[in-house]
Known about the structure:
The protein is mainly beta. It has one domain (3-110). 0% of the residues lie in helices and 84% in strands. It contains no helices and five strands. It has strands spanning 3-15, 18-37, 41-64, 67-85, 92-110. Strands 1-2-3-4-5 form a five-stranded antiparallel sheet, with no helix packed on it.
Amino acid sequence: MPWIATIRGRAGFAVDQVLFYGTAGVAFVDVSDEITATGFGTLYNASQVDFGWTVGAGVEAAFAQNWTARVEYLYVDTDLSLSGPLTLVGGNLGFSGTLSDSIIRAGINFKYP
């Protein structure tokens, strides 16, 4: 899974300089798989972008003028479907399933005046 991208909205409430929020939206994942064998090379190679949903929560706090820091948790859930040709023996190899992942992120933001 080389990358995960999300498009989310967030809503919350502020207490003084701290924002507590929930977030939800759509998640996109790039899924790839490869099977190689010594002496034969690559037998199977497939890649696809699938989508699902994500939810989470976080906190963001102002610590200086124009600066904030945040920590958030995201849960990502997607349905996967991947298929590709088997180069040595012919035919197709397919896979489908569910991918779920928990992500903890932290960041520092500068807000231009």
